[in-house]
Amino acid sequence: MFPGKVNPKKMKQMMKQMGMEMEEIEGVEKVVIYTPAGNYVFDEAQVVATTMQGVTTYQLTGEARFEGAAPEIPDEDVALVVSQTGVAGEVARATLIETRGDIAEAILRLAQQ
Fold it and tell me: Which of 92, 91, 60, 64 has its CA nearest to residue 76?
């Protein structure tokens, strides 16, 4: 598109003539994208805001890690696991979270301990 080297000053001037502005957002420490399945976390990210024709878009550059969402565990499920295994409620809840809410799997794991 642009042969050879492009002068950054000229490039900025051309972008301004087209009504386009770019600005790097300084001091970004973390960016998190929340989804129902979990979160994409960018601990060190470069974020550039581009405004063109009144619309601002954000470009994100960096390495993401995925953190799966912990399932919501109903108190009734915790009580059932406690009654079947005799463990403390906190242990039952933690095991249910590990098994993604699978009551039978949680009971089996706790029974083997």
Answer: 92
